[in-house]
Design brief:
By secondary structure, the chain is of the alpha/beta class. It is built from eleven helices and 14 strands. Helix 3 packs parallel to helix 4 and helix 6 packs across helix 7.
Length: 346
Amino acid sequence: MIIQLVKSANDSEKESVNKMLLSMGFSINVIETGDGQYIVSPENKNVDIRRIGNLPGVADVFIVKDQSQLVSRQWKVNNTIIDLGDGVKISRDEFSLMAGPCSIESEEQVEKTASFLAGQGVKIMRGGVFKPRSSPYAFRGLGIEGLKFFHSICRSHGIKIITEVMQVSQIAEMYDYVDVFQVGARNSQNFNLLDALGEVRKPVLVKRGMSGTIEELLSSAEYIFSNGNEKIILCERGIRTYEKAYRNTLDLNAVPLLKEKSHLPVVVDPSHGIGMREHVETMALASVMSGADGILVEIHETPEKAFSDARQTLDYSEAASLFDKARLAYSLNKSFEAGLTNLSIG
Ligand code: PEP
Ligand code: MN
């Protein structure tokens, strides 16, 4: 059950709501975000919710059966809109293209990529400076110095940035240089990190863990929301299965299901999802047709020279072609959703 409080609810009103809940046998979790105040009780009880709903300070009471309540669509009818400022939004109402190298490598690389993206009308650049690598001997990123030039060059092109944070201690030093924090697949259930990202006032994109279920991804998002941050984006990036023919199995089943279960935006990373450059475009387009609100793709001027994930990285001309097709696929899919079927193309 979620009790949504009015924005102006004062301490004594909150106290009486808590007392009532306790007297009815509910446990209480008080949550304050930049956008609202909530009390969440995980118990399911058959009670007259008017006893709570009529109390001063209460805006609404919702019975939510889903385990992850705050991220559930069962209480929030309006989809969450992530506003990055300057007109850049990630939401169900527009298509977000996020692209860039796996790793930030040099100022020159960022400059070239950002101007390419700006020319393509892409507003969000990805790039890792703290890289989770399977081998300790592989390139592990330029760290905070890399983030600083990544940020300042992107700002000069009017581009927002998304980058991975790997541990709690990095959040503070990264904070001023980040528009969206990325939680990588390997950290999808790092609950300390998720708790800490719940306390920040910047959006967080959570990737699905390599062996994470849909429920686990939603629970990870619930960690962030329940610690005070409502600005969350869910990302399908492929899961590990018995199949060895490609890097991961991109589970596009997740997209319609996550959109049904949650009010959060859902994006797909087809680059890590399949791991093969020649098939990234196909899977990106399939992602869009499955309803993704955005895609996250790895690109590089010379993919074969990329410091990491070269095998799955697109060059600029492949990226430009993908962006055009993805935009077209998005508007086609929106038309289908709107019930239009007699479309003529070309
Ligand atoms: C990445 O985005 O480069 C990355 C490491 O992704 P993932 O966590 O999905 O493997
Ligand atoms: Mn990568």
